[in-house]
């Protein structure tokens, strides 16, 4: 009986540790509660939004970083944007936001996720967020 409980406990720990190494799972558990995957389809969905949907947020961030940092190409822009996302997750500030005024007025800036997401998880999910949601013209091919 004790062996069975020990095995089950170790199995559960292994499953839990494994799920938070997959960027999609991290996004679902840590980001998607606020950031929708796509634009709202109804007025009710739009009213229920508490953060910009991901392609809108990523459009703002990539355009802002592209204009401010003037990277030499999409590969460098991807690197700079991922670094920005990793930092912003833990240290969000109005001066770090690239959202347009109308978006910022509605949502403000997000709270720090310092005690909600680990640095390791942020480093796993940030590249996935860029590769999944950055505008097509900013993708690295």
Give a verbal description of the structure.
The chain has one domain (22-138): Cytochrome Bc1 Complex, Chain D, domain 2. The protein contains 7 helices and no strands. Mean pLDDT is 87; it is low at 3-16. Helix content is 62%, strand content 0%. It is an all-alpha fold and 141 residues long. The chain has helices spanning 2-19, 23-30, 43-48, 54-69, 74-90, 101-107, 119-133.
Keywords:
0% strand, disordered N terminus, Cytochrome Bc1 Complex, Chain D, domain 2, mainly alpha, 141 residues, 62% helix, globular
Summarize the entry for a quick read:
The protein has helices at residues 2-19, 23-30, 43-48, 54-69, 74-90, 101-107, 119-133.
**Count of separate DSSP helical elements:** 7
**Low-pLDDT residue intervals, each spanning 5 or more residues:** 3-16
Radius of gyration over all CA atoms, rounded: 18 Å
**Largest sheet properties:** none
CATH class: Mainly Alpha
Helix residue percentage? 55-70%
CATH architecture: Orthogonal Bundle
Shape, please?
globular
Strands, count: 0
Order of helices and strands: HHHHHHH
Examine the coordinates and then state which fold CATH places here, giving the name of the CATH topology.
Cytochrome Bc1 Complex, Chain D, domain 2
Would you tell me the overall average pLDDT? 87
Q: Name the structural class.
A: mainly alpha
Taking the alpha carbons of the first and last residues, their distance comes to 54 Å
Tally of distinct domains: 1
Q: How big a fraction of the residues is strand?
A: under 5%
């Amino acid at each position: 009986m004790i062996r069975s409980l020990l095995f089950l406990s170790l199995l559960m720990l292994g499953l839990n540790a494994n799920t938070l190494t997959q960027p999609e799972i991290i996004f679902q558990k840590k980001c998607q509660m606020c950031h929708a995957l796509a634009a709202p389809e109804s007025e009710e969905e739009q009213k229920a939004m508490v953060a910009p949907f991901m392609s809108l947020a990523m459009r703002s961030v990539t355009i802002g970083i592209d204009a401010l940092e003037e990277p030499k190409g999409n590969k460098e822009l991807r690197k700079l944007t991922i670094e920005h996302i990793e930092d912003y997750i833990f240290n969000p500030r109005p001066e770090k936001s690239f959202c347009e005024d109308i978006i910022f007025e509605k949502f403000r800036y997000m709270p720090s996720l310092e005690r909600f997401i680990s640095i390791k998880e942020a480093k796993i999910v940030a590249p996935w967020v860029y590769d999944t949601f950055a505008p097509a013209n900013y993708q690295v091919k």
